[in-house]
Design a protein that fits this description.
Layout: H1 2-34, H2 37-41, H3 47-88, H4 94-156, H5 165-218, H6 231-241, H7 246-297
Helix pairs in contact: 1-4, 3-4, 3-5, 4-5, 4-7, 5-7
Length: 308
C-alpha cells in the first residue's frame, strides 16, 4: 500500500514537473511572438530565405507587369497614330482609310481587354505582397500568441472540463503557421512554375512585341510630330510616290501581318499573367483552405482533453 502511494506521489511530481516545463516553454514562445522577438530571431534561420525569395518574386513580377503593360499600351499608341494619320489623308483615298480602320479596330478592343487583365494581375500581385507582410504580423504576433495561451489553459485545465483548450490551441497554432508562411509559399510555387513553364513564353512574346513595334515604325506609316512636324505631308508624299496607291497597299498588307503577330503575342502575355497571378495563387490558396478545413473537421486530430 505504501509502495503504491509512493509510486503515485513520484508520478504526480513527474507530471507536475512536466507541466511546469511545458508551461514555461509555451509562455516563452507566446511572449517572444507577442513582442515580435520570435519574428526577429527567424531572420537568422533558413526560414528567412523564404520571406526574402517571396519578396524578391513579388518585386520582380510587379516590375515585369508594369513594363509589359507600358509596352503594349505604347505599341497601341503607335497603332492609334497610324489610324489617325490614315483618317487625316482620307481625301486621297477613302478605301485606304477603311482598310486601315478594319485592321486596327480589333487591336484596340484587344488592348482594352489586355488592360483589364494587367490591372487584375498587378492588383493581385500587390495584394499578395501586402498579405505576405501582414501575415508576418498577424500569423505570429496575434494567432501564435493566442494559441500559446489556449495550450497553457489546456495544460492546467482539469480533465473533467468539457472544453478542449489544448485542441483549439494546437489547431490555431497550425493556422498561424499557414497564415505566416502561406503567401510566401504561394510566391515560391508561383516562381518555380513560372521559371519552368512560363518564363520562356513571356520572354519570347516580349521580344517579339519589341520587334513588331520596330517593324511597324519602319513601314513608314508612322511618324510622330516630335520627330517630324510635317509627318502628314511626308505620308502624302509616300502615297503619291508609290504609284497612286500601290505602295501604300503594300505597306497596309505588311501592317496587317504585323497586327496579326501583335494579337498573337498579346494573347500569349494574357495567358502568362492569368496563370501566374490568378490561377496558381488560387490553386495554392485553395489547397491551404482545404488543409484548414481538414484541421477543424478531423475528429482524430488533436482531440486531447484538458491536461497533458
Amino acid at each position: 500500500m505504501e509502495g503504491r502511494l509512493y509510486q503515485k506521489g513520484i508520478q504526480f511530481f513527474k507530471d507536475r514537473g512536466k507541466k511546469l516545463l511545458i508551461s514555461l516553454a509555451v509562455v516563452l514562445i507566446g511572449f517572444l511572438a507577442y513582442t515580435s522577438t520570435l519574428e526577429n530571431l527567424l531572420q537568422y534561420t533558413p526560414i528567412h530565405d523564404l520571406d526574402r525569395k517571396g519578396d524578391r518574386y513579388y518585386e520582380a513580377s510587379i516590375g515585369r507587369a508594369f513594363y509589359t503593360f507600358a509596352m503594349v499600351r505604347g505599341l497601341n499608341g503607335v497603332i492609334s497614330v497610324i489610324q489617325g494619320t490614315a483618317v487625316a489623308v482620307s481625301p486621297a483615298g477613302v478605301g485606304l482609310n477603311l482598310a486601315v480602320g478594319e485592321i486596327l479596330d480589333p487591336v484596340n478592343d484587344l488592348v482594352e481587354r489586355f488592360s483589364w487583365v494587367m490591372l487584375i494581375s498587378t492588383s493581385s500581385l500587390g495584394i499578395q505582397k501586402i498579405l505576405m507582410e501582414m501575415g508576418a504580423w498577424f500569423g505570429f504576433t496575434v494567432l501564435l500568441s493566442l494559441s500559446m495561451l489556449l495550450i497553457l489553459l489546456g495544460i492546467w485545465t482539469p480533465r473533467g472540463i468539457p472544453i478542449h483548450f489544448s485542441s483549439f490551441g494546437y489547431k490555431m497554432l497550425l493556422i498561424a503557421i499557414i497564415i505566416r508562411f502561406g503567401i510566401p509559399a504561394v510566391a515560391l510555387v508561383s516562381e518555380n512554375l513560372y521559371d519552368l513553364f512560363l518564363a520562356e513564353r513571356y520572354a519570347r512574346s516580349i521580344t517579339s512585341l519589341e520587334k513588331v513595334d520596330k517593324e511597324i515604325k519602319d513601314t513608314g506609316l508612322f511618324e510622330t510630330e516630335n520627330e517630324d512636324p510635317g509627318y502628314l505631308e511626308r505620308l502624302k508624299d509616300i502615297y503619291r510616290s508609290a504609284g497612286e496607291k500601290e505602295g501604300i497597299k503594300e505597306k497596309i498588307l505588311l501592317l496587317k501581318d504585323k497586327i496579326s503577330d501583335y494579337a498573337e503575342y498579346t494573347v500569349d502575355l494574357i495567358i502568362v499573367f492569368v496563370i501566374q497571378t490568378v490561377v496558381i495563387p488560387l490553386v495554392v490558396l485553395w489547397g491551404l483552405i482545404r488543409l484548414v478545413r481538414y484541421i477543424f473537421g478531423s475528429p482524430r486530430l488533436f482531440t486531447g482533453r484538458g491536461g497533458i
